[in-house]
Structure formats: C-alpha cells, structure tokens
Amino acid sequence: MNRSFHKSQTLRFYDCSAVEVKSKFGAEFRRFSLDRHKPGKFEDFYKLVVHTHHISNTDVTIGYADVHGDLLPINNDDNFCKAVSSANPLLRVFIQKRDALPLVN
After folding, report:
1. CB–CB of 64/75 below 8 Å?
2. What's the average model confidence in pLDDT over 74-89?
3. Strand partners, 74
4. How far apart are CA 9 and CA 29, in angstroms?
5. Run of H or E including 104
6. What is the C-alpha end-to-end distance of the chain, expressed in Å?
C-alpha cells in the first residue's frame, strides 16, 4: 500500500475536516484528500490534479459532480470552494482534455 493512499484513508476515518477526492482522467482514477476548511486556491488544486495524473503538459478542464449528479466546472477559487464544501462524503472530479479552438481565417 503506498504512503499517500494510507494517509488518505487515515484522514477519511479520523478527521471530519478531510474531504476525499476521487479524480478521473480517461480510464484512470486517483484519490487524495483535501482539508475541507482550508482547501487552498484553485490554481494549486489544478497543479495537484495534473501532477497526480502525470499530465502536466496537457491543457485540461476540471469539473465535479454535484449532489444532483450535474457536472459543474471548477475553474476559479469560488467554484473550487463550492465543490469542496458540497462534497459529502466524496468529491468526484472529472478531468477532460481542453479542445483546441479552430483557427479562423
């Protein structure tokens, strides 16, 4: 069992302020934890997600499933804080490659 997964499991069972994050990129899933009360900034979260999925050179969009199952964007600090605060008990994050805009002549 790798160290980060073990730490994540410990946070989930012993610390109510931890939010378990399950992120999906293609067929690949990753899990990690965030502090519900001090989640940080969107930019740091974005860097963590692309680093965790080993896609640092890929431009992506990040979204999450809300309590109704709707896919909502995480693209700024406000959306990120809303996503973390609404996670109960899990924040499901979906990552997609950002499509390149077509060139217009």
Report:
1. no
2. 94
3. 62
4. 16
5. none
6. 54
